[in-house]
Amino acid sequence: MKARVNVMLKNGVLDPQGAAVRHALGAMGFEGVNDVRQGKVIELDVADGTTEESIKQMCEKLLANTVIESYTIELA
């Protein structure tokens, strides 16, 4: 079974990578980009029967820093 975890910085947390990307896009002539938030996608290939609760525990303990990041889980 496949699981995808999308991790993003919480609103209000400064995102220096996103700011650098926004600046670079402007320097390359791409106008109209007001803000960029950069995150990460983690794809897991887990055994059948692995529960969403188990994946949530993985996120809470390792995959996301829940103090400054939020996450969503997609199961396929």
TrEMBL record:
GO molecular function: ATP binding; phosphoribosylformylglycinamidine synthase activity
Pfam family membership, one: PurS
Pathway annotation from the record: Purine metabolism; IMP biosynthesis via de novo pathway; 5-amino-1-(5-phospho-D-ribosyl)imidazole from N(2)-formyl-N(1)-(5-phospho-D-ribosyl)glycinamide: step 1/2
Keywords: ATP-binding, Cytoplasm, Ligase, Nucleotide-binding, Purine biosynthesis
GO cellular component: cytoplasm
Physiological role: Part of the phosphoribosylformylglycinamidine synthase complex involved in the purines biosynthetic pathway. Catalyzes the ATP-dependent conversion of formylglycinamide ribonucleotide (FGAR) and glutamine to yield formylglycinamidine ribonucleotide (FGAM) and glutamate. The FGAM synthase complex is composed of three subunits. PurQ produces an ammonia molecule by converting glutamine to glutamate. PurL transfers the ammonia molecule to FGAR to form FGAM in an ATP-dependent manner.
Similarity section: Belongs to the PurS family.
Protein name according to UniProt: Phosphoribosylformylglycinamidine synthase subunit PurS
Record lineage: Bacteria, Pseudomonadati, Pseudomonadota, Alphaproteobacteria, Rhodobacterales
Gene encoding the protein: purS
